[in-house]
Each structure stands twice: as structure tokens, then as C-alpha cells.
């Protein structure tokens, strides 16, 4: 385990893509999205406080996800896109991303 916390096993060959996905997660700026993800973030932060290194609990994303809401979003996005068994909270974040950022046909 690293000092900043365990990360779920990224699928082989997707290590670089997972870093790009993580950094892309930091670009997701939208007040409505941020407000919607607040409840998920607060619940995660309560269960896995900042500084946690690892956990055997299914909902654990990474220790880094506990540092800030931005890191939580980015790490959840990586877990949802680049692991075989993402925590349900990561899938919930992905669903919120799809809800808020999907293309609209009538733009």
C-alpha cells in the first residue's frame, strides 16, 4: 500500500488511461453536478476519513479519494471505468456524470 492509500486493481494495460481519466475528472466543473455529488462525498468521507490507507470494505475506492471532493470524483471515475468490480459509490458517481454531462441533441 502506498502512503496516500490503496487503489483498486486497474485492469492490465489501462494504467496510463486511468491516470488520464483521473485528471479528466478534475475538469468536471458544474454547480448542479457538484451539489448532487455532495451527499455521496460526505457519506464517503464519514466512512473513510482523510488519511486512511486501506480498507477491506466493498465501498472503499482509495485513500486518495478521502482527501477532497475533487479527488473523490476523479478516483470514483477511475474505479468505475478501469476496474472489474467498482464500488457501487463509484458507479453512482458515474451515473451522476452521465446525468449532468451527456450530450443533448437540441443544443
Structure, explained:
By secondary structure, the chain is mostly helical. It has one domain (15-101). The chain contains four helices and no strands. Helix 2 packs antiparallel against helix 4 (88-101) and helix 3 (69-82) packs across helix 4. The model has no long low-confidence stretch (mean pLDDT 87).
List keywords for this structure.
single chain, 107 residues, mainly alpha
**N-to-C CA distance:** 46 Å
Q: What's the SSE pattern?
A: HHHH
Count of runs of 4 or more consecutive helical residues: 4
Low-confidence stretches: none
DSSP E strands, number:
0
Number of domains: 1
What's the Cα radius of gyration? 13 Å
> Which structural class do the helices and strands define?
mainly alpha
For the sheet with most strands, the description reads: none
Sum up the overall morphology in one term.
globular
Question: Averaged pLDDT, please?
Answer: 87
Name the helicity range. 40-55%
- Sheet-strand content, in percent, reads under 5%
Indicate the topology.
Layout: H1 15-25, H2 31-47, H3 69-82, H4 88-101
Could you provide a short overview of the structure?
The protein has 4 helices and no strands. With 107 residues, the protein is mainly α.
